[in-house]
């Protein structure tokens, strides 16, 4: 085991440890931030970690006789691997004429970096098992394209499958799925650390066969002390209407810590970032509750949820979510579009995010939505804009079919937009929920601010509510109002046709305390 530990230390040399350290909401772990990375790149050009010192001299590569490492590769990776292999000099075709599986599988080995000169590489289904401290990278600032050597009916819905690996580096590839029925998952099931960055999928996932699971990317780290960084992964072409494609999926056996930084995921019918499985107890399994941390990035027009988390201590920070059209639907036309969905467990944090649902967005449960099984968590310093009528900016649905009744906490949350009808915020079965320093300003007709249902001892404090209907409505709930600024809009100040929605009118006995 000593050699395994040595490999891990060498692998992580030059990559800051804090880039993979994240924490839990509501406790000291949450205050330990990963190092911020560069902004989202529109090209798959290598961006070296900002904390990696430039070597004063080029390390000596000890690769196979066919390897001729170029300076850029040696400078960036030479001190992390015993061998460096040029895949073209090893015999691989980079013109896209012949599959390279045989050459690649021979080149991949422990303590080995395989680099790809620019070009186009065909692959049949590729499976690598039980290999440690290896890397697959492109040359910095070049275009390296991997394309399946046939349709999904021949290759299967998994394209590249790395299983029970550790200390893996993947950097700088484009996956070309632009031809009809071509595409599959990059799947990394790791025991130890992984780094995957600068990856792009071009073309929609061939996800029409609902009997199969279709995922563009899947990552999980199965050892509790292991970490993964997934950075600048781009999958914007989504799936098909009536398909079931997922942008990025985290499996239930994830036990360590995964950070998704500055990724872009759009137009998938079955979740953009689907990362709640480790926290779920469902269909006879219990997830391993590995934490998930989403940092930056854009998630747009994904059905079900754009970002979905649900393991203890997970965090979503500096994320932008936009829904400005109807996304692809699941089989049968099912649409339920959420921005950020907190699915299970507790002690989660959403912070410094921007979420927008335009008037053209599809129906759904809320820009920030809570499953009844989710426990207590916090949203702070987050801006939500909703222009779609009768759509909630925040919604916690009732727990009549089972679930928790843990409180939710909102700090410095802003809700704006022109939405009419319904309530900007609807909270059910969440006693002791608090709103602190929040602003709710919805300009549509018959729009309420906060609707509390079956939730006693709630608090709304130091906040501003500007709506056309009830600022705070209750049903079998009690709320303590403290230092509020409230304005009821006149019809002339609203932006929608007047309508009547008696479901949000509070009963005569509101059981409210104002001070």
Automatic annotation (TrEMBL):
PROSITE patterns reported for this sequence: TAT
Region annotation Disordered: residue ranges?
Answer: 23-70, 487-515
Composition bias (Low complexity) maps to 48-70
Q: Note the SUPFAM superfamilies from the entry.
A: Pectin lyase-like
Question: Record's superkingdom?
Answer: Archaea
UniProt xrefs under InterPro entries? Pectin_lyase_fold/virulence, TAT_signal
Q: What is this protein called?
A: Right-handed parallel beta-helix repeat-containing protein
Q: Which organism is it from?
A: Halosimplex aquaticum
